[in-house]
Amino acid sequence: MCGIVAYVGNKNVAPLLFEGLKRLEYRGYDSAGLAIVSEEKIKIARATGRVSVLESKVAAAGGFESHIGIAHTRWATHGPPTEANAHPHTGKTKSGHTIAVVHNGIIENYVTLTKYLTERGHVFTSQTDTEVLAKLVAELYEGDLEKAVQSALREVTGAYAIAVMCDKEPHTLVCARKGSPLIIGIGEDSYVVASDPSAVVAHTTQVITLDDYQVARLCAGPKDRKSPGGGPWAVEFRTTTIDNVRVTREVEELELDLQQIELGKYPHFMLKEIMEQPESLRNCLRGRIDQRECRVVLGGLTPLVRDLMRAKRFILTGQGTAFHAGRIGEYLLEDLAKIPARCEYASEFRYRNPIIEEGSIIIGVSQSGETADTLAAMREAKERGAMALGVVNAVGSTISRETDAGVYLHVGPEIGVASTKAFVGQVAVLTLLALYIGKRRFLSDETVRTYLNDLEKLPEHVAKVLEQSDHIRACVERHVHRDNWLFLGRGYNYPVALEGALKLKEISYIHAEGMPAAEMKHGPIALIDEGMPVVFIATQGSQYDKVISNIEEVRARGGKIIAVATEGDTRIEKYADSIFRVPNVPEAMQPLVSVIPLQLVAYHAAVLRGHDVDKPRNLAKSVTVE
Ligand code: M6R
């Protein structure tokens, strides 16, 4: 989704803004822009396409020199990705000064506000909802930017993270948020504001976050204003609500290592994150398995353990890959903890007037912790009396802050738009959660121990699957020209089939469908023709024979069988054209290994088709609008 970077401080701002924008590229965008204040005038550059295009444009204009600036990558919502619609957007104050705004989110009442502002003489030049914000701040500006922003935000409904500046106040940045993420890095002589920590960590690890409806005024300028080029700088910030009530925000230490967000030896973040899964799993499981006591340790849940034991129903929710992890969670909680569970798309759950019975617990599954639909569903369920748990990766994200308790994934930042290590982390955490509850209800120590043993070996198991990357690539090469694929599985492996299909379509743009293997004969079998690639997750377990029957049905119609099968299973060799092996683990843990080859299938297909794996078309890493 849109990305914001803003800076005020003692360094030349343009290179810092470009560096920040590049760090945010993974979020997905289609145009970019920046504004600075130079000689008491706002200078703006905007471009469609990549940040590098914007950079060349600024260089061609002789470069931008300033110590204050705001920049943005836009993922189009209102109006196409044109230069006119790219941010920053501006407004003229009554005194003739210029306000510039970058914004992430959606202003819902922009039509009414546009009418109001047009009547007051403001002329709109874009089709965005954001421009209304710039004009509104300008309309309300009376010599104090912070006040004007507060007043404007009191008139606005919707979601926003914004950074605003004015040429009349060249040492002041004002930012605010409601719903959309924003963090503020506190440097020695500077402030850097960004949509996520990846654009901050190169400058500082000291950060503050804002709650909804809060505003920060960040000032940085030379102590001696008469000699702006040299001498010490003075910095000062304050935080308020949009009603101008002072609030205190704690400065926190950002736990992020620059290395984690750099490519290193890998050509793409997606491949890096797939290949690093043994390590990310180790981090996810660290300290959570107590073999001696034969138990799972989930510190974040300790205060709520009684409520968990009394739970009558779990509702798992999420979108995309997180939803698929939630579907596996549904199987795990019913199977291991014996508590009714259902997983629903957050976007559907929220609007269907759900009945929340007493003892319901909603579990929000999300890598970013900022997905608007998931957040809205969690709020809805909480309002109706459910207790809320988060299974989230991004520490300090909105979902993690709004839940009653939760379990972090601890798999490190995920940059690749296609979620991989977060999925495996989500499923691992949900497995731990099901065991945590199951052990306290009726699971025997012996059963728990079997799972814990296999969970401990999981990083090695995954590493072994990853060794087949070249073999998987060779297989994909034979089928990559085909435009339609099917992914089929049963039981625990049905959501894995959904995930395999999603991965393939989102980065290779091949049409793929995932479904329960048995569902195929109820219609989709009509699609199967000579040579159609059909991926079966055919690991050994309670439904293995049934999956083999489904494989036969596809083979009889000319489909090419690509099977994910258990090590040592020789029977499958008679049926499959290609086989990817996974270690033999308990059925409830199979998704953790069977998804790995499917991630590699998607990755290799996208590379072989020549696509930009880390920047798939039309996609955003974190979808912060409904
Ligand atoms: O950040 P979240 O886990 O809440 O994101 C949910 C989905 O937007 C996300 O999983 C999306 O489907 C990915 N592109 C999948 O690879």
List keywords for this structure.
626 residues, alpha/beta, Glutamine Phosphoribosylpyrophosphate, subunit 1, domain 1, Rossmann fold, 3 domains, eight-stranded antiparallel beta sheet, seven-stranded antiparallel beta sheet, 18 helices, 34% helix, 25% strand, binds 5-amino-5-deoxy-1-O-phosphono-D-mannitol
What's the gist of this structure?
With 626 residues, the protein is of the alpha/beta class. It is built from 18 helices and 27 strands.
Structure, described:
- The chain is 34% helix and 25% strand.
- The protein has 626 residues and is α/β, with parallel strands linked by helices.
- It folds into three domains: 3-258, Aminohydrolase, N-terminal nucleophile (Ntn) domain (Glutamine Phosphoribosylpyrophosphate, subunit 1, domain 1, 4-Layer Sandwich), CATH 3.60.20; 263-465, Glucose-6-phosphate isomerase like protein, domain 1 (Rossmann fold, 3-Layer(aba) Sandwich); 467-613, Glucose-6-phosphate isomerase like protein, domain 1 (Rossmann fold), CATH 3.40.50.
- Strand 21 (387-392), helix 12 (398-402) and strand 22 (405-408) form a beta-alpha-beta unit.
- Helix 15 (469-479) crosses helix 18 and helix 16 packs parallel to helix 18.
- The protein is globular, with a radius of gyration of 26 Å.
- The termini are close together.
- 5-amino-5-deoxy-1-O-phosphono-D-mannitol is lined by residues 318-322, 366-368, 371, 374, 417-419, 506, 619, 622-623.
